[in-house]
Design goal:
A 10-stranded mixed sheet has the order 6-5-4-7-8-9-10-11-12-13, covered by helices on one side. Strands 1-3-2 form a 3-stranded mixed sheet, with helices on one face. It contains 6 helices and 13 strands. The chain is an alpha/beta fold and 271 residues long. A hairpin with a 2-residue loop joins strand 4 and strand 5. The chain is elongated. The C terminus is likely disordered. The protein folds into 2 domains: 69 residues, Roll (Ubiquitin-like (UB roll)); 145 residues, Rossmann fold. It is 32% helix and 25% strand.
Amino acid sequence: MTQGYYRPGRAVWPPRPPRRGPATRRLLVGASVLVLLAAGGAAAATAFRLHPRFLVRRVVLEGVPEPRRAEVEAVTDPWIGRPLLSVDLDAAVAALSSRPWVARAAARRVVPDTIAVRLAARPAVAAARRGDELWAVDAEGGFLGPLKDEASAEDFVVIDPSGAGDEAAGTARGTAFVTRLKADDPDLLGRLSEVVVTRDGIAVIDKLARLRLLFGPEALEPRTGSLRWRALLALLPEIERHGLLRREVDLRFRDRIVLKAPASEGERGKT
């Protein structure tokens, strides 16, 4: 008797994946090159940042008034010894630009080890007495630096804050008067030669009329000081016609002008 047996059919194998084509190989090679370049660039950047050759060794300041140098150096001195690329120049420029005496600020890196800072200070509007010297001051009353000589002050109104008790506050008040007069009546500013700041007011010199004019604190308000000064100038021909002697004119009152005669005359007139 013949015994039967099982014969399996042909085995079925899963299909083999196709080999990578040229395009795929090129893509992989390109990606590998990019990774290597990125890694090399990062390593180079790290080496550049940390290499002693690229540490900040010098900060150059341009356009900084001498009295403000210490203020600017307080911002820039911490850069010394730090990596050139790690210094936050934008923050420093923003901090310097916020100062009232700074009109413009900019900073740039100079490879390998220098940062240059350039400032434009607000222009001087007057000259202020500081002891035996005259200093240029800005619109905020900030001291910009000493003037070389008296001739350098000829184009400026001179502010004398010695009677104010506080030099800085007196200078700021005197400068505020000059700035207010320039805005309200520029022609009057041309008559002004000196502003003497006292504890309770301001005395100014009208160099054309040769008069000392007394103002109160309200002279810093818009149009107040200039209108009272103009009222006096309108009355001057009549005052001179009557031969009224005067040395000072008191403009601190709202509704009257007080003429002060020289001490030798001992008279006081009102108009």
